[in-house]
Amino acid sequence: MQKKYLFTPGPTPVPMEVLLEMCHPTIHHRTPEFEKNMEQVRQGLKWLFQTEEEVLIFASSGTGAMESAVQNLFSAGDKAIYVNGGKFGERWGQIGRAFGLEMVEIKVPWGEAVKVDEIQTALKEHPDAKGLLMQACETSTGVAHPVREIGEILKDTSVLSVVDAITGIGVMDLPFDASHIDVMIGGSQKGLMLPPGLSFVAVSQKGWEAHSRSTLPRYYFDWTKTQKAQNKNSSAFTPATTLIQGLAKVLEGMQEEGREKIFKRHAVLAEATQKAIQAMGLSLFASAPAPGITAVHAPEGISSNKIISSLKTDFSITIANGQEEYKNRIFRIAHMGYFTPSDMLQVYSALEITLKKLGHPLEIGRGVAAGAEIFAQKWPVS
User: Fold this and answer.
1) Is residue 280 within 8 Å of 351, Cβ to Cβ?
2) In the chain, what's the furthest Cα-to-Cα distance?
3) pLDDT in tens, 109-150
4) What value does the mean pLDDT take over residues 71-75?
5) Is 292 helix (H, G, I), strand (E, B) or coil?
6) Counting beta carbons within 10 angstroms of the beta carbon of residue 191, is it exposed (0 to 12), middle (13 to 18) or buried (19 or more)?
7) CA distances from 78 to 74, 123, 135, 167 (A)
8) Looking at residue 25, what DSSP letter applies?
9) Which are the contacts of 145, defined by CB distance < 8 A and separation ≥ 6?
10) Three-class secondary structure of residue 335 per DSSP
11) What is the CA radius of gyration of the chain?
């Protein structure tokens, strides 16, 4: 018999009440029933993003929303700066070049956060840059970048601040309006506790002004078309109706819990995980760890693939490998969305047993005890 446990940084577990909501019969999207769901979701997303602006909804992966940002903000030949500190920062450069932009890279070592002065230097060296594209949290490394500080730098300039917050929305405090972000992107499969398939884009007034000047071709991802439809509680194209039903249920639950408690909950889960990992004699990969994911150096002489494989075979627990040059060198454990201390203590325990079997010298129970101590002090959050 197997009971499976998912600790990957997307997709993340879906609550049972949300799964049951999505088991209801499929509805047609041009009906009052769907319009009611859409109205609830629109208002809930504004609450979650902490914005007065419309949050656009697409049936796509987060990468689709990233692509839409380039299509809707820029024109061929425009210059944009991007932060490349991992797999998804690298993706900004790839998307921009695919649409004919001149992409200026700020190369950041994997595991490090971009420094504010690096941003300032790039802006001085490229005064004609139209945008700065970055991640709030780099999923491939578990790093949180200083988004709010960078927003302050850009707020009185013509440079657009474009942030992939797919691993940050519903996990860390990213108030869209107050952070002076011009475009913020989210996805359904992480802190929002849904299957993959929805992406979200919040756009500031400065972003809409840039959109009106952009000449890049677009059709499905046309923001004007999408906003016009959403203002009528509808969609420009056939939406992912079942996911919208699930999202309404998720947002209802999140609003009942409250944003402050959500952010505190994730901070405590992250702290406990970091303490547990360090008590096992392992080191964190990220210099500025994000609250939704912990990236860990595999012990000397043990590949992360062996750890991941053993956890899955022996305990039916799935965690994530590193990517690119860090594949088999690091592993990543998620604690965003539908996770509790009980879940985390389970993965700490299984990881200790796995490491012991693979030859890593540790005293069984030290990691669990370190994590449990944090929960004893700080759980439940209030």
Assistant:
1) yes
2) 61
3) 999 999 999 999 999 999 999 999 999 999 999 999 999 999
4) 98
5) coil
6) buried
7) 6, 14, 20, 28
8) P
9) 83, 85, 113, 114, 134, 135, 136, 137, 138, 288
10) coil
11) 21
Tell me: the pLDDT tens digits for 217-273?
999 999 999 999 999 999 999 999 999 999 999 999 999 999 999 999 999 999 999
What is the average pLDDT score of the chain? Answer: 98
Of the CA atoms within 13 Å of residue 337, those in its CB half-sphere come to: 28
What is the rounded distance in angstroms from the CA atom of residue 118 to the CA atom of residue 137?
17
**3-state secondary structure labels for all residues of 140-171:** CCCEECCHHHHHHHHCCCCCEEEEECCCCCCC
Burial status of residue 46 (CB atoms within 10 A of its CB: 0-12, 13-18, 19 or more): middle
Domains and CATH numbers, the chain: 16-257 (3.40.640.10), 259-378 (3.90.1150.10)
* pLDDT for res 2: 83
Strands (E) across 225-347 are located at 293-297, 317-318, 320-321, 330-334
Percent of the chain beyond pLDDT 90?
A: 99
Q: What residue has token string 């299509």? A: 71
Name every residue whose Cβ is closer than 8 Å to that of residue 124 and which is 6 or more positions away in sequence.
Answer: none
**Tokens, residue 376:** 């004893």
289 DSSP 8-state letter: B
CA distance 309 to 282: 18
Give the model's pLDDT for residue 106: 98
In this predicted structure, the answer to whether residue 316 has a pLDDT above a threshold of 90 is yes
